[in-house]
From TrEMBL:
Family (UniProt): Belongs to the peptidase S54 family.
The Peptidase S54 rhomboid domain, residue ranges: 150-297
Keywords: Hydrolase, Membrane, Protease, Transmembrane, Transmembrane helix
Protein name as catalogued: Rhomboid family intramembrane serine protease
Database matches in Pfam families: Rhomboid (PF01694)
TM region(s), chain numbering: 12-33, 161-182, 189-208, 214-233, 238-261, 281-299
Membrane topology recorded in Swiss-Prot or TrEMBL: Multi-pass membrane protein
Any single biological process term in GO: proteolysis
EC number(s) on file: 3.4.21.105
Localization in the cell: Membrane
Major place of residence: membrane
GO MF annotations, alphabetized: peptidase activity
Keyword match Ligase: no
Length: 491
């Protein structure tokens, strides 16, 4: 299965600088520092299988595995090898990714006698030095070892050129959408933390195994999870390929998260152990990235103007006159016809405040009071990010206040925050008025304090003092109230 969002063309205006830098780094690491490592590792394993070190170390490895209860099915795998040479090659390969092996051998208890142990101690350092010269082995992730450095560096390594190519294609496609929505530095942080999260998931899944991991796919999976939550309900174009079916479709970005995660979990539980694909790292990266995307969205650290740059085109593509027709129907009081068109637009572009306000007016003019109030709250609940939309929400709140309509306190607090951000100070104050003091008092007090400072900066001294007094009286125990009393005393 392949699901790939192809929503934006790569242009100079949207060029993802950090994404491009990550591609360059990954390519440079593979062709610059990893070049030839696979052949060197194969040569080292082959030499070990015919060496005296392998001859004395392999039986000690078996005894160590048996004593510690085995490591997965490693004992059976060792004994099922066709001959001694194959067993030594297996030991050499497993030991590359097992941080516990050499320390265990250094105790000497797994060798038959002191002379054999002494011989091992003379042979092993040269072999370790050879392994240390191989860049990939120094930086890949090793199961059963918590190494913060390797949890990051392994995300810049790749097994072969096709592994690198596939990951870089996904990185460019996802990076274009996520870097544009978050900005360069937040995108970089998500990538690095996603790499750590994916590595952590792989360590948990493989703890106790002799296994290694490398590749950017875990970090890219984190970008994919972040994309789903940051873009949310925004419809995006994506390409899918499932068996013999493939096509381009449009759907909300968040719908891709369960599809991606479900596919990784399905492969994780049904895969062949020899697949060498870290589905657990992909799943861990997806969940980690989704969590970061949710937090960034909740903290307002998302560039909605990039996400909704083509919102008007999404809502009204060329030749689409539904908005104009809906307004004409409203002017003629053809409410049913207007409602049908507006519902279509609201489904296609749920972030459009003007559409939601129009739906409220249709319900109100149709004497559907309960539905009108519900739609009004929906319009006020939109996290608008432009002055015109916030102004429309503020005017709607004034209209509702005149009609004594109920607006939930949490919605009013969010509206007040948006009004303060766009210097609609009187509207912010109206939204904050009469909210019960026990509803999010920390949020209320912070908003009142910010509002007071904005009034002061605007030269409205009376409003500044009024807000400070309201804060000190309504929320006397909040830290902002202490600041308010100080400002009042020194006004």
């Amino acid at each position: 299965m392949l699901l790939l969002p192809l929503h934006r063309p790569l242009m100079r205006a949207t060029f993802p600088v950090v994404t491009a830098l990550l591609v360059v780094v990954n390519v440079f690491v593979y062709f610059g520092w990893q070049s030839g490592d696979n052949a060197r590792i194969a040569e080292v394993v082959e030499d070990y299988a015919h060496s005296r070190l392998g001859e004395i170390e392999a039986p000690a490895y078996e005894r160590w595995l048996i004593d510690r209860g085995g490591r997965g099915d490693a004992v059976e795998e060792y004994r099922d090898a066709e001959d001694d040479e194959a067993r030594r090659a297996l030991v050499a390969t497993n030991a590359l990714f097992d941080p516990e092996f050499v320390p265990a051998m250094e105790t000497g208890r797994w060798f038959p006698d002191g002379a054999t142990f002494a011989e091992w101690r003379t042979l092993r350092p040269a072999y370790d030095e050879t392994l240390g010269d191989i860049f990939t082995l120094r930086h890949l992730l090793r199961a059963s070892e918590v190494s913060p450095a390797r949890m990051v560096t392994s995300a810049f390594l790749h097994g072969d050129a096709m592994h690198l190519f596939g990951n870089m294609v996904f990185l460019v496609v996802i990076g274009l959408l996520v870097e544009g929505a978050l900005g360069p530095w937040r995108f970089g942080v998500v990538y690095l933390l996603g790499a750590i999260g994916a590595s952590a998931a792989s360590l948990v899944f493989h703890w106790g195994d002799a296994a290694g991991g490398l590749g950017a796919s875990g970090a890219i999976a984190a970008l994919m999870g972040c994309f789903c939550l940051v873009w949310g309900l925004q419809p995006v174009r994506f390409f899918y390929w499932i068996g013999v079916w493939f096509d381009y479709v449009r759907a909300p970005a968040v719908w891709l998260f369960p599809a991606w995660l479900g596919w990784e979990v399905f492969n994780l539980v049904s895969r062949d152990a020899s697949s060498n694909v870290a589905f657990e790292a992909h799943a861990g990266g997806l969940v980690c990235g989704a969590a970061m995307g949710w937090m960034l969205s909740a903290m307002g650290q998302v560039r909605h103007e990039f996400i909704r740059e083509d919102a008007s085109n999404d809502a009204a593509p060329a030749g689409d006159d539904r908005w104009e027709r809906a307004q004409r129907h409203m002017g003629r009081m053809q409410l049913s016809e207007a409602d049908q068109l507006l519902d279509q637009l609201a489904t296609q572009a749920p972030w459009r405040v003007d559409v939601q306000v129009a739906r409220y007016r249709v319900a109100y003019n149709g004497a559907r009071a309960e539905q009108a109030n519900t739609r009004a709250v929906q319009a006020l609940s939109i996290d608008a990010h432009d002055a015109q939309a916030v102004r429309l929400q503020a005017d709607l709140f004034v209209e509702l206040a005149r009609r004594n309509a109920t607006v939930p306190p949490t919605v009013r607090l969010a509206l007040a925050r948006r009004c303060i951000n766009f210097d609609l100070l009187d509207d912010a104050e109206r939204a904050l008025q009469d909210i019960p003091a026990d509803v999010a008092p920390d949020v209320q007090s912070q908003l009142w304090f910010e509002l007071a400072l904005r009034h002061r900066d605007a030269g409205a001294q009376a409003a500044h003092v009024r807000c400070l007094r309201h804060l000190s009286e309504r929320h006397p125990m909040q830290p902002q109230a202490v600041k308010a009393r100080f400002l009042l005393e020194n006004a």
